[in-house]
């Protein structure tokens, strides 16, 4: 009987030894399955992000092309508004020329040109162009360009007395300077005599007490 119990114990122990590796193997397979599923999920996510990146890159390239095209068109047609403002001036000039050709009088031509000039000046003001004040103002090297000096007898010096070519500002910024003639106070002959007398007296005083220049 003892032999029978011993054999049963051995059989039970043998069964336990054979069944014990089953649990770790199942757990490992489960872990591998989870890792594979996670890897697949991450791979899908990476592919989705890559597709999104490619789409964004394509959209950005299209945006750059569109912006370049719009910028090119803007440069080509930037002066469209100014040209539309100037067309009435051209129309008036053409009308004036046609009037002269059919025997218009000089006075009428002069009046027509004067009207055209005022129209043109109004057009310039609309686009922010204003003339620089010059004549009668003190010479300003920032907006004036001196082309000559003119002697004057009124005692004023460094004043723009004549405008050779009008200057303009565009929205307050210098577009081109005004060419002007600048005054230079003329020294009169009697002033020269007084000045010479004062210089002589000064020289006499500088010779020392009681000593006069021969």
- Structural class label: alpha+beta
Strand order, biggest sheet? 1-4-5
CATH architecture name of the largest domain? Alpha-Beta Complex
Element-by-element helix/strand order: HHHHEEEEEEH
CATH C-level class of the largest domain: Alpha Beta
Q: What is the count of β-strands?
A: 6
Mean pLDDT across the residues is 76
Strand share of the residues? 15-25%
Low-confidence stretches: 199-214
- How many individual domains? 2
Q: Main beta sheet: strand number and arrangement?
A: 3 strands, antiparallel
In DSSP terms, counting alpha (H) and pi (I) runs of 4 or more, how many helices?
5
CATH fold annotation of the largest domain? Hemagglutinin Ectodomain, Chain B
Q: What is the percent of helical residues?
A: 55-70%
* Principal-axis shape: elongated
Distance between the termini: 170 Å
Radius of gyration equals 50 Å
Assembly category:
single chain
Could you characterize the architecture of this molecule?
This protein is α+β, with helices and mostly antiparallel strands. The chain folds into two domains: 31-127, Hemagglutinin Ectodomain, Chain B, CATH 3.90.20; 130-185, Head domain of nucleotide exchange factor GrpE (Nucleotide Exchange Factor Grpe, Chain A, domain 2), CATH 2.30.22.10. It contains five helices and six strands; from the N terminus they run ααααββββββα. The strands form two sheets. A three-stranded antiparallel beta sheet has the order 1-4-5. Strands 2-6-3 form a three-stranded mixed beta sheet, with no helix packed on it. β4 (168-170) and β5 (173-176) form a beta hairpin. α3 (80-101) packs antiparallel against α4. It starts with a helix and ends in an 8-residue tail after the last helix. The model is unreliable at 199-214 (pLDDT under 50). It comes from Methylomirabilis oxygeniifera. Residues 1-30, 194-214 are annotated as: Disordered. GO terms for molecular function: adenyl-nucleotide exchange factor activity; protein homodimerization activity; protein-folding chaperone binding; unfolded protein binding. One of its GO terms (cellular component) is cytoplasm. Its main location: cytoplasm.
């Amino acid at each position: 009987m003892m032999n029978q119990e011993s054999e049963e114990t051995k059989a039970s122990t043998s069964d336990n030894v054979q069944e014990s590796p089953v649990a770790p193997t199942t757990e490992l397979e489960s872990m591998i399955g989870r890792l594979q599923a996670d890897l697949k999920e991450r791979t899908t996510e990476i592919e989705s992000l890559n597709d999104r990146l490619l789409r964004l890159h394509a959209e950005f390239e299209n945006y750059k092309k569109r912006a370049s095209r719009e910028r090119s068109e803007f440069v080509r047609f930037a002066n469209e508004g100014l040209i539309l403002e100037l067309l009435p001036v051209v129309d008036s000039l053409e009308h004036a020329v046609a009037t002269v050709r059919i025997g218009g009088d000089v006075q009428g031509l002069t009046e027509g040109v004067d009207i055209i000039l005022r129209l043109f000046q109004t057009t310039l003001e609309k686009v922010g162009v204003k003339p620089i004040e010059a004549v009668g103002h003190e010479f300003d090297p920032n907006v004036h360009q001196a082309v000559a000096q003119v002697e004057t007898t009124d005692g004023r010096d460094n004043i723009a007395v004549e405008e050779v070519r009008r200057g303009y500002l565009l929205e307050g910024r210098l577009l081109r300077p005004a060419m002007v003639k600048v005054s230079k106070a003329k020294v009169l002959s009697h002033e020269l005599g007084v000045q010479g007398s004062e210089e002589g007296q000064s020289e006499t005083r500088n010779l020392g007490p009681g000593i006069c220049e021969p």
